[in-house]
C-alpha cells in the first residue's frame, strides 16, 4: 500500500506499526470531515496528506526523539496538529503541548485527541506571547511548521525553551534565505545552529530544509517583545 511504501522509502517502516497506521488513517478521515466545515488545510488528498502532513511532521524528529522519555515538546501554531499530534502518535512517551490562538483549531485538536485516545497531548488556546509569560523555560523542545518566518519564530519560541533545550524549525525551499535573515536573532537569543536537514519528501516540489538550534544561555527578559513590535521590526 502507498503508506507502507512511503515510509519504507525513507527507511521508517519500522516506526509504522499497525496501531499507529490505524490512528493516522483515522486522523486523515477526521481531518477531511472537519475540513469541509472549517477549512483547516488545503491538503486533503490521501497521498498528499500522508506525504506533506504525516511524513513531513515525523522526519525531522526521528533522530532527536529516538530512545528519549520524559521529554516535553511545544508545537507553536499547531493548526490542524502538524507536527505535534503526529509526534504524539509515534512517540508515546513524549509530552506534547499544541498551542494555537484560533479557537476553531483548538476545538478541532481537542476533538481529535479524544477520538484518537491520545493521553500525552495538552491543547492550549492562547497567543504565544501571552502564554509564555507564565511558562518561561518550560519545554525541552519547541517546534513549529509554518508559524512564521524564521526570525519571528525564534523570538517567539526561544523563551519557552529550557537551558540547552532544542528549537526545531520546519522550513521549505526558502529555508536558507530565512536563516540568513535570522542571523541577528540567533545571536541575540543565544542560540547555536547544531544541525540542518535538507531532503525531498517525494519530488523536487516537496523540498524541505529544517534547522535545529540549541539554547546556550538564558533568554533576556525583554523577549519576546509585543507581537506588533516583532512583526514591525523583526530581530
Characteristics:
7 strands; Rossmann fold; 235 residues; alpha/beta; 7-stranded mixed sheet; globular; 11 helices
Structure description:
With 235 residues, the protein is of the alpha/beta class. It has one domain: 3-Layer(aba) Sandwich (Rossmann fold). The chain has eleven helices and seven strands. The protein has helices at residues 2-9, 18-38, 46-58, 62-65, 84-90, 103-116, 128-131, 150-157, 175-181, 183-188, 227-232, and strands at 72-76, 95-100, 121-125, 139-145, 161-171, 191-200, 207-215. It has a seven-stranded mixed sheet, with helices on both faces. Helix 8 links the parallel strand 4 and strand 5. Helix 1 (2-9) runs parallel beside helix 3 and helix 2 (18-38) packs antiparallel against helix 6. The termini are far apart.
Blueprint (SSEs and pairs):
Blueprint: H1 2-9, H2 18-38, H3 46-58, H4 62-65, E1 72-76, H5 84-90, E2 95-100, H6 103-116, E3 121-125, H7 128-131, E4 139-145, H8 150-157, E5 161-171, H9 175-181, H10 183-188, E6 191-200, E7 207-215, H11 227-232
Helix pairs in contact: 1-3, 2-6
CATH H-level homologous superfamily name: Vaccinia Virus protein VP39
Q: Please tell me the total number of domains.
A: 1
Give the strand content. Answer: 15-25%
Using only CA atoms, what is the Rg?
Answer: 17 Å
Q: What's the average pLDDT?
A: 93
Major pleated sheet: 7 strands, mixed
Annotation, overall tally of beta strands: 7
Q: Helix count, per DSSP? A: 11
Overall geometric form: globular
Strand arrangement within the widest β-sheet reads 3-2-1-4-5-7-6
The helix/strand order is HHHHEHEHEHEHEHHEEH
Amino acid at each position: 500500500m502507498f503508506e507502507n511504501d512511503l515510509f519504507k522509502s525513507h527507511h521508517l517502516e519500522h516506526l509504522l506499526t499497525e496501531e499507529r497506521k490505524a490512528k493516522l488513517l483515522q486522523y486523515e478521515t477526521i481531518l477531511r470531515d472537519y475540513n469541509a466545515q472549517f477549512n483547516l488545510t488545503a491538503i486533503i488528498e490521501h497521498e498528499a496528506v500522508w506525504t506533506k502532513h504525516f511524513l513531513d511532521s515525523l522526519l525531522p524528529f526521528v533522530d532527536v526523539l529516538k530512545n528519549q522519555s520524559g521529554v516535553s515538546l511545544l508545537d507553536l501554531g499547531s493548526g490542524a496538529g502538524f507536527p505535534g499530534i503526529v509526534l504524539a502518535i509515534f512517540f508515546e512517551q513524549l509530552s506534547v503541548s499544541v498551542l494555537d490562538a484560533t479557537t476553531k483549531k483548538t476545538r478541532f485538536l481537542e476533538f481529535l485527541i479524544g477520538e484518537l485516545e491520545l493521553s500525552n497531548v495538552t491543547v492550549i488556546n492562547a497567543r504565544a506571547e501571552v502564554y509564555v509569560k507564565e511558562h518561561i523555560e518550560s519545554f525541552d523542545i519547541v517546534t513549529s511548521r509554518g508559524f512564521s518566518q524564521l526570525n519571528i519564530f525564534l523570538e517567539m519560541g526561544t523563551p519557552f525553551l529550557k537551558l540547552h533545550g532544542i528549537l526545531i524549525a520546519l522550513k521549505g525551499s526558502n529555508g536558507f534565505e530565512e536563516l540568513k535573515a535570522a542571523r541577528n536573532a540567533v545571536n541575540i537569543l543565544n542560540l547555536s545552529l547544531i544541525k540542518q536537514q535538507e531532503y525531498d519528501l517525494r519530488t523536487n516540489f516537496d523540498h524541505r530544509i529544517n534547522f535545529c538550534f540549541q539554547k546556550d544561555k538564558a533568554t533576556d527578559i525583554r523577549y519576546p517583545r509585543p507581537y506588533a513590535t516583532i512583526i514591525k521590526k523583526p530581530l
